[in-house]
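Researcher: Quick sanity check before group meeting.
Model: Go ahead. Protein one:
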Amino acid sequence: MTNKRNDKKKTSSGGLDLGIGGILKGLGDLVEKLEEISESGGSLSKTGEIGGDGGQVKGIYGFTVKVGLDGDKPRVEPFGNLRKDAKSGHTVVQETREPLVDVFEEDDHILVVAEMPGISAGDIRVEVEEDLLTIAAAHGDKKYQKEVLLPESIPQKNVEWSCHSGVLEIKCRRTKA
């Protein structure tokens, strides 16, 4: 009988994966591949096994693939707390998570919906500077931050928001022309 914890696993690049670093690199590679596919079209099939060091993994990663009705190419938008370090090129776990965010354009307002589990209204800060919306929230060990580029400039006084069960809804009223 072999001890799986001590077995070395081969990575897709032919190197040896000795733990969590290989898992994070694999997730980073997956995101890059999905972005490449969304730009050029095509398909992707990938399987793998993710395990952590005794269940102590704190990395959270996910992505959404968004396709517009107007024929735009699909966009892959990641969320979570795994990022690729610009200097080293390695995937790192950050303390702050990026929430899943959707933006809906209505006639008289822009609606931004962010999912931040474990957060309540008193934990949130929402700011708008011209067309840049900044969302920040913290409660205990859960910290979130996201910058959203709005389709137009919105004054701070036109922003209203509410939070229920970790779902933040931000209504940005458009100024009349």
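Researcher: Fine. The other one?
Model: Protein two, sequence then structure:
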Amino acid sequence: MQMTFLRPWAPQILSLIRIVTAAAFLTHGLIKLVGWPAPFPYPMNGLLYVAAIMEIVGGVLLIVGLLSRPVAFLLSGQMAAAYFMAHASQGFFPALNMGEPAMLFCFIFLYIAAAGPGPWSLDALRNAD
């Protein structure tokens, strides 16, 4: 038995995945840069400031779906680097090294870079997808 009832909604679900993932990603940058919705628990350094700016700017751009493919590709790379710099040395399994969010963001953004932003985006409105 095939589950095909969602197939007609795949483009809209892609847009929802982009929006929800970007909104969650945006909060990581806001925590680092402005301490909202919670204070960042580690000391900030130059690399973390760059990451915070990428997370805020990239998160906003992906929420609205503007320049989605290149932004998603850059953020995918950022999350791959974050995983290997901060988590992989803590053990192999992402569930144990606290790297699941970085790994998931990396691959979701990589998929968005490949698949595009979906129909609910500024890119789709301006036929730039």
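Researcher: One line on it for the slide.
Model: Residues 25-125 form one domain.
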